[in-house]
Design brief:
480 residues; alpha+beta; Creatine Amidinohydrolase, Chain A, domain 1; Creatine Amidinohydrolase; 2 domains; three-stranded antiparallel beta sheet; 16 helices; globular
Length: 480
């Protein structure tokens, strides 16, 4: 007879029930927890700004049911998710960043009554306290409840279940993961004009929003210094683009919510690649290094700034020539930013400088006028993207607006936008002389349209080649 295996635990091989089905556990885990006071952490002035935004949207869509949802974190793989970032239109209306939340503006006499519907946290005594990995406080930590949110935001807050129970036609709103999905979920029961109206209203920033963008830009400027200071180490230790990307992303997370978009660090032949977000190459010691980076503030307003620096501290003659041409285009674009000017004027002004420069270098097969014509556009081989965009809660802000409200509209005070001409000479482009291949240069500033003209919010960073070289070397010597 075989002796029993006394080395195995007594319950080895037993299929355990779910914890929710074990009364002894549920009774024990539900008691003897101290109360943890919590309050939403909001940027100063955020609640008042959101209230004003709701009033503007209410006036734009009188008598209509208005719904916006925070959305949900997208799946990364299996049961792992990317970090949650609330829908920008929802944040503009609420200052709230709770996953799965929904705001409804119900038509009322004189405007709308706004109600924010939140999934309440599961606290000790709730079944979800230990079983819900999204809202159970045993999993995600203590969080503010509905009364705390109502007090912080100065608005009516109700449990999400109340919306689904009283208005079953809106049941799909909380499940929506994006604005487009929300429109598909709720259908004709709500205004189809919400997304366009939000984009139109968000184009002109109020004083609070401009302050948030200044904060984001200032943090970004500091981040550029932190990144460029690490270039010698990235070269010497073979750490490459990844190290510089990580340096900025850590800075953005420390001084804001995080990067406002995927950080671009492109060295050498990677610099001409418009969206080089892989950042997995070496830092080539004698190449140009393109850095496109932006800090997203904790209010979720983001900066978007680009500079191209010499990894050696000094541009080569060819690199300097390209940088100088981009600088001239950049300044031409900046000169067109003022109230009353059509949005696309800055784009055309910069493109004209680019086309003329390329023609002077013998790179265009046609005249400058032919290239600039709608039927030509040959210069765009080396500059396939646009010259700028609106900036705000989204890096490409208000892109849902109609053409006549965006590109076909005149600039007005309160608009914040980027100006970002560049030249992208790919290493395998046979139309280029060898000395130009593999050079990519972009200059991008964040610009506020003012009553008197414009203000470059990112002006603390240098623009000219001489200034860029001096600034780059100063980051290495600590003479900042």
């Amino acid at each position: 007879m075989t002796a029993p295996d006394t080395t195995r635990p007594p319950y080895a091989g037993t299929r355990y029930p779910r914890l929710a089905q074990v009364p002894a556990f549920t009774e024990f885990v539900s008691r003897d927890w101290a109360d943890v006071p919590t309050r939403p952490q909001l940027p100063a002035g955020a609640a008042a700004a959101a209230s004003a935004h709701r009033d503007r949207l209410s006036a734009a869509l009188p008598g209509q049911v208005i719904v916006a949802a925070a959305g949900h974190a997208p799946v990364r793989n299996d049961d792992a998710h990317y970090g949650f970032r609330a829908d920008s239109g929802f944040v503009w209306l609420t200052a709230c960043q709770v996953e799965g939340a929904v705001i409804v503006l119900w038509p009322a006499s004189g405007g709308h009554d706004a109600v924010l519907y939140l999934p309440p946290p599961f606290r000790p005594g709730d079944a979800g306290f230990f079983s819900d990995a999204n809202h159970g406080e045993l999993w995600v930590g203590p969080s503010a409840g509905l009364p705390e949110w109502a007090d912080a935001l100065g608005m009516t807050v109700e449990p999400l279940a109340a919306l689904e129970r009283r208005h079953p036609e809106l049941r799909g709103a909380a499940a929506a993961r994006s604005a487009a999905a929300l429109a598909a979920e709720v259908g004709a029961e709500v205004s189809p004009e919400v997304e366009g109206a939000l984009a139109r209203l968000r184009m002109v920033k109020d004083a609070w929003e401009i302050g948030q963008l200044r904060e984001a830009v200032d943090a970004t400027v500091a981040g550029f210094g932190a990144v460029v200071a690490e270039v010698p180490r990235a070269i010497a230790d073979g750490l490459g683009e990844r190290w510089l990307q990580g340096t900025f992303d850590r800075h953005a997370r420390t001084y804001g919510n995080g990067p406002g978009y995927s950080t671009i660090v492109g060295s050498g032949a990677h610099a001409p690649i418009l969206h080089w977000v892989r950042c997995d190459g070496d830092i080539v010691p004698d190449a140009a290094l393109l850095l496109d980076m932006g800090v997203e503030a904790r209010s979720l307003y983001t900066a978007d700034v680009t500079r191209t620096v010499p990894a050696s501290g000094t541009f080569s003659p060819a690199q300097r020539d390209v940088h100088d041409l981009v600088e001239r285009a950049h300044r031409a674009g900046l000169d067109r930013i003022r109230p009353g000017v059509e949005y696309l004027d800055f784009h055309f002004a910069a493109m004209e400088v680019v086309a003329q420069g390329l023609h002077d270098w013998g790179l265009l097969p046609v005249s400058v006028d032919e290239a600039l014509s709608p039927e030509g556009q040959q210069h765009r081989r080396y500059l396939a993207c646009g010259i700028g965009h609106h900036l705000g809660l989204d890096v490409h802000d208000c892109s849902q607006a109609h053409y006549e409200e965006y590109m076909g509209a005149a600039l007005e005070p309160g608009v914040v936008m980027t100006v970002e001409p560049g030249l992208y000479f790919h290493a395998h482009d046979l139309t280029l002389p060898p000395e130009l291949r593999g050079i990519g240069v972009r200059l991008e500033d964040d610009v506020l349209v003012t009553d008197a003209g414009s203000e470059v919010l990112s002006a603390a960073l240098p623009i000219s080649a001489d200034e860029v070289e001096a600034w780059t070397r100063a980051q290495w010597t600590g003479e900042r």
